[in-house]
Every structure is written in structure tokens, then in C-alpha cells.
């Protein structure tokens, strides 16, 4: 365990979190009974294929989901339940205590406003600085993310994709939050720039003692940046544990396939179909019976078609939801 993850405990706790979208043809169970803890100062990676519920989980944390989403369970941020917070408090929490960096910064920035004004906005809105002090802080922030301070006068279209993502990171850092949620922050970038932005995120959260939840389909990226990993499949966590152990010695057959798909950081070819895994992730409206992964699982037993095993202890601070893991642990 890293030094950072040994610091103060329990900044964020999810307890049986579920999110269901109501659409015309029925209900989409996008997140199903997710429980996890993020220690203060630690970095947690959430991995899974497209449609596994990662972004829904991220959006739920700051109540950014659309109105058709029904959310159950508890999200405790420093002991305070996000789901029952009054809206005024929720607005105060966003940016100041927890901020989010999305994939594809071009959508997150206003094309007709200068970079400096956009980075200053969270500071001004949250009353953390007056205009003159905000300008100074913007210069500091741009410097921190490796951009020259004159970039404050640029417009988003004058920057590269990587530079725009650095601006989004500067905005996320502006109010010195305790938690940053980064949802596929480097997916839209080419491999070289991706590596630079990942290093930047890793260094900034470590230097500033910020907790991080990073979401990606790429297990190698997460293993590089995060202390712990949670692997999601069809809205559930199927494995959790220290990054190195999950990446190099996965217990769940799905995590194994995901790790094998991304032997090195940022292999875009593996994005949608992990190698060695046939078929597609299930439609959440028509989940298979038993273990949701069993139709694609190379080691499925007959009982997997009816039995949905809970997360089972699989070593120190490790869990996996698989009948084989359970059998092994029961035998030992
Ligand atoms: N607004 C919505 N209304 C209905 N269904 C939705 C909505 N948003 C997401 N979904 C569905 O919820 C499930 C989880 O989607 P989500 O975007 O959270 O997955 P993801 O793992 O982040 O995928 P990706 O990596 O492609 O973003 C998917 O089946 C998706 O189609």
C-alpha cells in the first residue's frame, strides 16, 4: 500500500449504490449495488468495458445525473450523504470539495471565453478569490499544469487537445478540492500526450494530497496511476484490490481478460473488445440470469447460469465475485 493510502481513512464511502434510468421501453439498471471506500489521499481506479456503468457511477457522486435516473443507496463524502444534501450545499461541494474532469475537454470548455476567465470562474463563483487574486491564482494553476501563463488570454480553439485537457485539470484544481473524479481524462488524446497528462494527474494529486477516482476502460492506465482498482461488469463491481495485484494477478476471469487486453498503457485497439473475450457486454435491460458474465466466461460452470456470487474475500483487502474464488477460499 502506498504512503498516500495509509493517511486519513474514508473520504468517500459508497454503500449499496444503485442507479436506474427510466426510459420509454423500461428500466436500465446501470449501477447495481456498488459499495466501496476511498481513503483520504488515495487513488482508486474504476475499470470496465463500455456500458459497464463507470460514467453513471462518476456522475452520481456529484449528483450530475439526468432527471430520468433514480438513485438508491448512500454516498458519504466526509460523512455527509451527498444524495440527501440540500441543493445549495451540493453546489458548494462541487468544485470546492470535489470536482470532475471529463473525457474530451473540447466539450467542457466554452469556445467563446478566454481560458483565464474559465479557470477563474470556480474561484469567483465560490467566493474563494476576488478578481485580482483570481488572476494570480490562474497564473499559478496554469503553471502547475505545465502551460505558459500567457495562455490565459487564449481561446480554447487555439489550444491542442492535450493543452485543453490541462486547462480542465487546472479548473478542477482551482478551489483546492479534496477529491477529483477523472472520467476517461486521456481517452481522446494520442498516446504520447496521454502519457504526459497521466503523469501530470498522478503528480498533482500526490503533491496536493488530493484523493482521486479515475475511470477508464484501460486497466494498465489505472494500474499506473492508482493505488487500488475496482473492476466493473454490467453495473457491478466484480473485483477490488491493490492495483498491482489486480493488474498482474487478477482473480476474476473478467478482470483477467481486461488485464490481458491492455498489457501496456494506452492500447486503443483493445478499447471495445478485450482480447480473448468473445461476445459483447450484456444489455442491462436483459441481463443474463446468475452471474452476468457467465455467457462470456471461459471457465463458467453450470451453476454460474443460476448463481450470482457476491464479492468474496480473496486475499488482504481484495474481493472478487466468482464461484471459483469462493471455492478456493472456502477450501483454504
Ligand atoms: N441517460 C441515460 N438514459 C438511459 N440509459 C443510459 C443513460 N446513460 C447511460 N445509460 C445506459 O447505462 C449503462 C451504463 O452506461 P455508462 O455510460 O455509465 O457506462 P460506461 O461504462 O461509462 O460506458 P462508456 O465507457 O461507453 O462511457 C449503459 O447501458 C447505457 O446505455
From TrEMBL:
Protein keywords: ATP-binding, Cell membrane, Membrane, Nucleotide-binding, Transport
Primary subcellular site in the record, as a coarse category: membrane
Pfam family of the protein (one): ABC_tran
GO (cellular component) term, any one: plasma membrane
Molecular function in Gene Ontology: ATP binding; ATP hydrolysis activity
Gene3D superfamilies: P-loop containing nucleotide triphosphate hydrolases (3.40.50.300)
Membrane topology value: Peripheral membrane protein
Name of the protein this chain belongs to: ABC transporter ATP-binding protein
Organism: Nonomuraea deserti
